[in-house]
Amino acid sequence: MEKVIMHVDMDAFFAAVEVHDNPKLKGKPVIVGGTSERGVVSTCSYEARKYGVKSAMPVYIAKSKCPNGIFLPPRIGRYKEVSKEIFSILRSVTPYVEPLSIDEAYLDITNYTKNSVSTSKFIKEAVMKKTGLTLSVGISYNKFLAKLASDWDKPNGLTIIRKNMMPQILFPLPISKVYGLGKKSVKKLNDIGVFSIEELYKLPKDILIEFFGKYGIEVYDRIRGIDNRTVQILRQTKSIGRENTLKRDTDDKNELKEYLKAFSISISKQLLNKGFSAKTVILKTKTSSFENHTRSKTLPSYIYKPEDIYQEACEVLMEITLTEKVRLIGLSVSSLKENSLKQISLFDS
Ligand code: TTP
Ligand code: MG
User: Fold this and answer.
1) What residues line ligand 1, using a CB cutoff of 6 Å?
2) Which parts pass through the membrane (predicted)?
3) Domain range 5-11+77-164, its CATH number among 3.40.50.740, 3.30.70.270, 2.30.110.10, 3.40.630.30
4) Of all protein residues, whose CA lies closest to atom 22 belonging to ligand 1?
5) Counting Cβ atoms within 10 Å, is residue 326 exposed (0-12), middle (13-18) or buried (19+)?
6) Which helix (H) or strand (E) covers residue 13, if one does?
7) Which numbered atom of ligand 1 lies nearest the CA of 103?
8) Which of 44, 79, 262, 311 lies most in the core, judged by the most C-beta atoms within 10 Å?
9) Which atom of ligand 1 lies nearest, measured to the CA of 14?
10) What's the rounded Cα separation, in Å, for the pair 190 and 16?
């Protein structure tokens, strides 16, 4: 049977919460982000987007684009509180809710409602009543298309992609809309003259496999409306990490190690809380010119202790040649496994 998948995404989430909590901000360009000159924009209201302000943009650039913007520091605790209220409304519709982030979820409503449009309206109204916020809904027969649909008509959108609209409805879209095609992949395709999904559609499977390996098959299938991923109620934690923008840019590895030490302690604590060990250590750096680099190392055995994480992180750091100063450093661990009962009791003692 054809599934009915819904993707729900709050509009300008952090900024919308700020406006709701302080109605004087309504209609103004509100920008939430690190407020120091070195911070980046988390998000901004749709009014601020008109000036070209975007998530992840350095705050100083946002200030130059939108000098009248109202810049606010994030209040993560408050956003989490609102997120909880939204998710409890979603779970009142169906137990098949997969959280993707603080403001976004997939719902499998196949067996829970006959009319997906009225369900969307119910969710929109309930969320508005409880939190005062708007959201956008996408509905389709698989996850990929539902997510594309929710982004179709933001803010406060409701878009349905039906089987008989495929694949033509996707043709005019830029290839960056294909989930998983990041900047580098998009550039690779642009370089051979592929910009729209229509052009991507014409590429033979072999070329996509040559370009992207196994993921090439997924791209080939998805733009043809094939995506068999199910809605996962218990979303697995895939990685645990921390990152920080440095107080000043540096290429002194000893200085960077101090950050890694603090991150290792925090990551180890989170691993213990969740009862996990990890096998892969990933070091991320962003350079002064905003280039991201990651380098990872997979270990022969699982680790969880702060000193082990720190040691491995330092080894990865020492392998890197810094050609430029670093402005942000991050450390994360992945390839997680649940600890056995024996290990858990060891931690307890
Ligand atoms: P998004 O859903 O990507 O963005 P949004 O809800 O602000 O706007 P849209 O209407 O386009 O959905 O992200 C949700 C929240 O996550 C966002 O409000 C702030 C946070 N966030 C960051 O902190 N940094 C980022 O780079 C992004 C993309 C989001
Ligand atoms: Mg959102």
Assistant:
1) 9-14, 42-43, 55-56, 102-104, 154-155
2) none
3) 3.30.70.270
4) 42
5) buried
6) helix 13-21
7) 14
8) 44
9) 18
10) 35
Whether 104 is catalytic is: yes
Both tokens of 78, joined, read: 């408050």
CA of 96 to the centre of ligand 1 (A): 23
Task: Report the topology of domain 166-222.
Answer: DNA polymerase; domain 1 (1.10.150)
pLDDT in tens, the chain (349 residues): 899 999 999 999 999 999 999 999 999 999 999 877 788 999 999 999 999 999 999 999 999 999 999 999 999 999 999 999 999 999 999 999 999 999 999 999 999 888 999 999 999 999 999 999 999 999 999 999 999 999 999 999 999 999 999 999 999 999 999 988 888 899 999 999 999 999 999 999 999 999 988 889 999 999 999 999 999 887 667 899 999 999 899 999 999 999 999 999 999 999 988 888 999 999 999 999 988 999 999 999 999 999 999 999 999 999 999 999 999 999 999 999 887 654 544 444 3
Q: How far apart are CA 242 and CA 7, in angstroms?
A: 28
Q: Whose CA is nearest to atom 28 of ligand 1?
A: 55
State which of 7, 9, 13, 17 you would mutate to test the pocket of ligand 1, scoring each by most atoms of that ligand within 8 A of its C-beta: 13
Chain region(s) in the chain for CATH 3.40.1170.60: 14-75
Cα 20 to Cα 136: distance, rounded to the nearest angstrom = 17
Q: Which atom of ligand 1 is nearest to the CA of 15?
A: 18
How many angstroms does the Cα of residue 335 sit away from the middle of ligand 2? 28
Give domain 239-348's CATH architecture: 2-Layer Sandwich (3.30)
**Any known ligand binding at 103?**
yes
Catalytic residue among 47, 104, 218, 312: 104
Cα–Cα nearest to 25, from 6, 41, 10, 44: 44
pTM metric for this prediction: 0.78
**What is the DSSP code (8-state) at residue 43?**
E
Tell me whether strands 239-250 and 326-338 are parallel, antiparallel or unpaired. Answer: antiparallel
How many angstroms does the Cα of residue 333 sit away from the middle of ligand 2?
26
Cα 95 to ligand 1 centroid, rounded to whole Å: 25
